[in-house]
Amino acid sequence: MSAPEVTAATGITLDALFRRSVQIFADRVAVTSDRASEPTWTYAELGRRADRLAAGLRASGLRRGDRLAVLSETRPEYVELYVAAARLGVALVTLNIRLHPDELTAIVDHAGPAAVVFSGSLTPVAHQVREHCGAVRHWWGFDPEPDTDAWADLHDTGAPVPEPAAEPGDLHNVLYTSGTTGAPKGATVTQQAAAIRGLRLAQWFSLTPDDGFIGWLPLFHCAGDESLYATVLTGGRFACLRKADPGRILDLIERDRLSWTLLLPGVITDVLAEPVRGRDLSSFRFAIGYANMMPGVVQQLTAKYDIRFCDAFGQTETSYVLAHGWSGPGEEPHLRKTPTPLLDVRLVDEEMNEAPVGSPGECVVRGPGLMSGYLDDPAATAETFRDGWLHTGDVLVRDTDGTLSFVDRTKYLIKTGGENVYPAEVEQAIAGLPGVQEVCAFGVPDERWGETVKVVVVPAPGESRPAAEEIVARCRQRLATYKRPHYVEFLTTEELPRSTTGKLQRHLLAARGARPTEEVR
């Protein structure tokens, strides 16, 4: 038997797992929406629609190995496209809807898709991109638009349903990183890696057909699409929301008996503040996010909704749940995370020596769910994959029991007077101070020390704002003197620059610099 035949026989595709779910969960509800105008589909209906869509896409000329870009909020049509593309072996290039048209144009040019699909609300942006991307053969609109091929027509071509074409090593999607420190890079995820990512989540979170996911997070983010895989693979409900509206999130939990979602900065505080108003939320059992960024808010959230919270650590290149730690209802998050299955994790120094217990080291990873590299970027791929490991660029500390604690990104390291300061340790010292909702630390130029520490603090609503001197004093109590902030600035939540996933864009805050009025020595 030849090597390709062995590979085909011993691998698995995401398409195969999708087809299994369509068959064995046929009568269960697969996809719902918060909009009355949008459909609810059973798994059987999702499968039939995806079959007709795959036939239409193939009749339009798309073949295994082609790429198809998507510019859309999370909606049912996006889900059926995932299933249809997986059958064909067509890779989806999922576009960030918050990017500027010029940024999107650069990504489309780089990815080289044969077609682009877009949502009606994003028609003006799609048309601007279209003016500069003449090589794209098809432009389909989920919603009827002038001068745009109709999405609905793809379901009615009458073409025969194509046989499954995907192989385990075929690309399933391309997820462009945020590009906060440079041009976005396209992380490529194969059919097999996508299937393994979904299976890892399903196993780790003990998902069953009775679980349901609140899918407000866009599918251009790895946490959005991995959660879709895990939900479909276990026969659960995937509820589509076009935006993170806290009232609608709670309404859907009650209506569809949904059980899990992601609650990231910028969303978690809104959900915490939303009145329950007699809703039955007893099906809600856990949320996922970043406890280290807002531990007090997480503690209040779990107490209010009587849920557990998964403090996740991961990235697009590896999976969004590389390691995680649980906190129960009303518990203060402990911030120690357990590595999840099917990933081999090490903490190393610059020479790839194992970091001792308690000492910071870069997290390097290997396993079958990793990305396959950056699309058409061999230099960036070689920089990330070294010595047989994927280098995450994240610094962590290992405890004696094997749990990991996040320290910071290597690129955020502050060098002050020859000493290293990780912003996360400053942030964690300040986060527990009464009156602080959120904090971000970063380095700013300093004539004497080269760099020094500045923090931006968001006061907690309804509480007394701590004075800048109190913040510095708290750091003196908990940290080495050189780690204390020399500058403190107070901003509102609305003034903070955030990525799509709610993370503070540290480089934009750092670009503000430090003003003499903020200085606290």
Number of strands: 26
User: Could you say which structural class the secondary elements and strand pairing correspond to?
Assistant: alpha/beta
By CATH, the architecture of the domain at 1-19 and 40-190 and 217-228 is named 3-Layer(aba) Sandwich
Largest sheet: 10 strands, mixed
CATH secondary-structure class of the domain at 1-19 and 40-190 and 217-228: Alpha Beta
Beta percentage is 25-35%
Q: Distance between termini?
A: 72 Å
Helix content: 25-40%
The radius of gyration computed from the alpha-carbon positions, rounded to a whole number of angstroms, is: 23 Å
Low-pLDDT windows of residues: none
**What is the oligomer described by this structure?**
single chain
Describe the structure.
With 521 residues, the protein is of the alpha/beta class. β14 and β15 form a beta hairpin. The protein starts with a helix and ends in an 11-residue tail after the last helix. The model has no long low-confidence stretch (mean pLDDT 91).
